[in-house]
Write a structure and sequence with these properties.
heterotrimer, A mainly alpha, B mainly alpha, C mainly alpha, A: mainly alpha, Four Helix Bundle (Hemerythrin (Met), subunit A), 6 helices, 73% helix, C: mainly alpha, Helix Hairpins, 74% helix, elongated
Chain lengths: 170, 641, 105
């Protein structure tokens, strides 16, 4: 096995195992922690694929921002010492069936599909200069518009979150 | 051609009075309602007299010398098809004008009388409103231009009668009586409606002028098709007669009339003596051309039913003790004679003697019968009791009532020269020409009539001296003036040359007094009076001995020949158990059950479907994701692309 | 194939993560755990995008940019969700998703 494949195997295993643990854990703080591991492993996946910028963003935003936010909210709203209830069978079985069925169909489709012949290139790192130029360029393959839209979205989210979470005066 | 369209006001005034008195009478003193109703009727009376004068004496006759028959006022009310329509209007011809006079006169007298009689009663205002409603309905009935309008007003008359019989609605017996009257007449009207439908179906019209005119479709159509040996036209005329028989209390639909005496006495005078009960006679008279030419078998039915009813009622009247019951059976008997006279009649000139006699007797009967009832009301008012046994020797206390009552009794017994003699004589003459057997039946009826009326007279005004709780006093002026007026009518009405005005083909003719008929009739009447005098003038035990001698027969007569019991048996045991109960079961379980079942199914379905909208986020997400998975499955694997 | 790792392996990993996230979304009772499952779903999609990008179109960067934007949106959405959850907690003092089945009337 090549080193790449080994790394891929480790990351993939971490992702799969810990994601399953996230959704089945009965202690909420543990679930958050497992989520953190999943996100870090995903960042590792990006590193594997030589998308360093993206991986950095992933680690910063997701692992460092969102998971912290989630943990804050857990502390604010739950009794973290209590065990979460086990959901009853009536809920698990249909959900499991749907998820498993969907997974099977998708995997079968993936395996049957003939992807176009891959080109052997693409092992270099992504150039941050190219990324930066694309972000603000307005020509083809430029992402100025989505960039601006995202910034408005974040503004809206910020304002909305503040207003929603404000203590009402009544 | 004189304009007679003002006659529609004769109808509209009482309707207006009904609405006004009914809605606003409460705000004023009761007397105001009484005066309003009476004033309205006074105006109507004058209008009818004017109309009669103009019609009979001023209006020129038609080309063949007969009185004209025309529509004074007509509006098209309902268009059923292109050719079939229901109108509302006023038809003027001799019989309708005669009825106008009868109705307005008697109603006016009754209104005057009621102001005195009903004084102090709760519901005084309601009484006068309903009296006006009744006047409106009855007048609308007699001037109807088509048979459907007549039917509508027929039902209205039934409603007014119901309201008036059940006037003392707190008394159970009054309520039961009003229901009985309404139900029996309604049942008879079922026959009437069937008859109307058959008639109009075969002739294609409702209109009287067309139906009874010269080239009536009734004479040609409907006479061919036979059912059980009788043509369609005959069947329809028999059914129509069934309606008339119910309203006129002919056997066997007479059971409501005695019970209807539960109503106030003025009501009995107006409705159950002079006007409503003669509606059946009027109906046959109105359709007489059809009866004569297209359905003579039906006319025979009329004759036999009339004759039988008259003798049936006369026998029962001899055994009753309640004053008003005696008068009720007397009414039934006299109307039976009117029907009999119509049944034996021919058409045209002297042939139509029976027709003329019937109408003449209707006219005179209105006077003396309403007088009898009003006088009975004065007696009851004085003595506070209805029953003959508790009265006696009242001639000392009630002079005016005594005199007028005697005049009326003499009139009904057929003593000349009072009015009853003339009209009854014509009936007997007509009967003698047609059927000798029925002629003798009617002679017996005349005798019995004289007997029971004078039995009543002697028991009340002569007889034993009864000790009264308080001395009976004469009725107030307001009640005695109508009595006197009607007595004058009963005295003089016979002198009117009726055959010069009202005849079967509207052509006046001369009728003569036949001595061969008159003498036996008067003799029979006098025998009846004399017998009653022997039995009842002084107190004797002769009546009881005869009663016991006749044993079972007299007992049956006293119990009205058990007809009521037969009806009760038929309805309770047979109809209720075998017809009503299954139908009620069907209605409750199957019809209602289907409805309830539908509601139940809907409810259950909604309970089940309700779960789809649970508000549970994860359930929605589950359905969503399953849908996506299924569609993916469908598109990738099961579509053969 | 990217340096020995076939495309399909990436895709399968992403798929499994996706459906695990869906399972968690449908099963969990606590609102925050549902949010965590949503994050799983979003991340799985990201992996798919970058895998396709790197292996099929190595000269372009669309996949990566799309993933960046997805991460940004996910961050905004997570913060909104937390704000809503805090609000709900204030009102109902529990954040059990099965108890929240009525709209305000």
């Amino acid at each position: 096995m090549t080193p790449n494949q080994l790394m891929f195997a480790i990351f993939s295993a971490v992702i799969i195992v810990f994601s399953i643990l996230t959704v089945t854990s009965r202690r909420i703080l543990r679930a958050a922690t497992f989520l953190l591991f999943v996100l870090v492993a995903t960042g590792g996946m990006y590193f594997l694929l030589r998308f360093n910028f993206l991986a950095a963003i992933q680690l910063t935003l997701y692992a460092g921002g969102i998971v912290v936010l989630i943990i804050f909210s857990i502390l604010l709203t739950s009794h973290i010492a209590e065990k979460l209830e086990k959901p009853d069978l009536k809920k698990i079985i249909p959900a499991f069936l749907v998820a498993a069925g969907g997974a099977l169909i998708t995997i079968a489709t993936i395996l049957q599909h003939k992807f176009p012949v891959e080109i052997a290139s693409g092992s270099e790192r992504t150039n941050i200069r190219v990324i930066a130029k694309s972000l603000i360029s307005t020509e083809k393959f430029g992402y100025a518009l989505p960039f601006e839209v995202i910034s408005i979205l974040l503004l809206a989210a910020m304002v909305g979150a503040i207003i929603l979470a404000k203590k009402r005066k009544d | 051609m004189i304009d007679f369209s003002y006659t529609v006001w004769i109808l509209l005034i009482p309707l207006f009075m009904f609405v006004v008195v009914g809605l606003f009478g409460n705000r004023f003193k009761p007397l105001v309602s009484g005066i309003a109703g009476t004033a309205g009727l006074f105006v109507m009376w004058i209008l009818s007299l004017v109309t009669a004068y103009k019609y009979f004496f001023v209006l020129e006759k038609a080309a063949d010398g007969s009185f004209q028959k025309f529509l004074a006022f007509n509006v098209r009310w309902l268009n059923l098809t292109d050719t079939l329509h229901i109108d509302m209007g006023v038809l003027l011809d001799p019989i309708s004008i005669m009825m106008l006079i009868v109705i307005t006169t008697v109603s006016f007298m009754v209104h005057l009388y009621s102001i005195g009689y009903m004084d102090g009663e709760k519901g005084f205002m309601r009484f006068f409103a309903t009296l006006s409603l009744f006047s409106f309905s009855m007048l609308g009935l007699v001037v109807a231009t088509n048979i459907f309008q007549m039917y509508i007003f027929w039902e209205l008359v039934g409603v007014s009668s119901y309201l008036l019989i059940g006037f003392y609605y707190t008394k159970d017996s009054a309520v039961a009586a009003s229901k009985k009257a309404f139900i029996v007449t309604r049942f008879a009207d079922l026959g009437f409606l069937i008859g109307i439908l058959m008639l109009s179906f075969s002739t294609g019209t409702f209109d009287f002028l067309t139906l009874t005119g010269a080239n009536s479709p009734a004479f040609s159509s409907g006479t061919g098709i036979m059912f059980l040996g009788l043509s369609t036209m005959t069947w329809s005329m028999i059914f129509i007669f069934m309606g008339g028989a119910g309203k006129s209390a002919m056997f066997p639909l007479h059971i409501w009339l005695p019970d209807a005496m539960e109503g106030p006495t003025p009501v009995s005078a107006l409705i159950h003596a002079a006007t409503m009960v003669v509606a059946g006679v009027y109906l046959v008279a109105r359709l007489f051309p059809i009866y004569i030419f297209a359905a003579p078998v039906a006319l025979d039915v009329v004759m036999y039913v009339g004759a039988f009813s008259s003798i049936f009622a006369a026998i029962i009247a001899c055994t009753q003790f309640d004053i008003k019951r005696v008068l009720a059976y007397s009414t039934m008997s006299q109307i039976g004679m009117m029907m009999f006279a119509l049944g034996v009649s021919g058409y045209g000139g002297h042939e139509g003697l029976g027709y003329m006699a019937s109408m003449f007797h209707l006219f005179t009967h209105a006077f003396f019968k309403s007088l009898l009832f009003l006088a009975a009301g004065a007696i009851i008012h004085a003595v506070h009791s209805n029953v003959m046994n508790e009265m006696g020797g009242l001639r000392k206390y009630l002079p005016i009532t005594h005199a007028t009552f005697l005049i009326a009794c003499l009139a009904i017994a057929g003593v000349p020269p009072l009015s009853g003699f003339f009209s009854k004589d014509e009936i007997l003459a007509a009967g003698h020409e047609k059927s000798l057997m029925l002629y003798w039946v009617e002679m017996i009826v005349s005798g019995l009539t004289a007997f029971y009326m004078f039995r009543l007279y002697f028991s009340v005004f002569w007889g034993k001296e009864t000790h009264y709780h308080h001395t009976p006093h004469e009725a107030p002026k307001l009640m005695t003036i109508p009595l006197m007026f009607l007595a004058v009518g009963a005295l003089l009405a016979g002198l009117i040359p009726f055959s010069g005005f009202v005849t079967s083909d509207r052509m006046p003719f001369q009728s003569h007094l036949e001595i061969g008929i008159a003498i036996p009739a008067v003799l029979v009447g006098l025998i009846g009076i004399f017998t009653a005098m022997i039995f009842y003038r002084k107190e004797t035990d002769l009546p009881d001995r005869i009663y016991n001698a006749l044993g079972g027969f007299s007992k049956a007569a006293f119990h009205k020949f058990y007809i009521d019991e037969v009806y009760l048996f038929i309805t309770k045991k047979i109809i209720f158990n075998y017809v009503s109960r299954p139908i009620a079961w069907f209605d409750r379980h199957i019809v209602d059950g289907a409805m309830n079942g539908m509601a139940y199914v809907t409810n259950e379905t909604s309970e089940r479907i309700k779960r789809f909208q649970s508000g549970q986020l994860q359930q929605y997400a589950l359905v969503f994701v399953s849908g996506v998975v299924l569609i993916t499955l469908l598109f990738t694997y099961l579509m053969t692309n | 194939m990217f340096e020995g790792v076939p495309l399909t392996w990436f895709l399968i990993t992403g798929t499994i993560m996706f459906f695990v996230g869906i399972y968690g979304f449908l099963v969990r009772k606590n609102l925050i755990t549902i949010l965590m499952s949503t994050e799983l779903i979003l991340n799985s999609v990201n992996i798919n995008f970058v895998a396709f990008n790197k292996i099929l179109y190595p000269d372009h960067l669309e996949g990566m940019f799309f993933s960046i934007f997805i991460i940004a949106v996910a961050a905004a959405e997570a913060s909104m969700a937390i704000a809503i959850i805090i609000n709900i907690y204030r009102r109902l003092v529990n954040i059990d998703v099965e108890k929240m089945n009525e709209m305000k009337f």
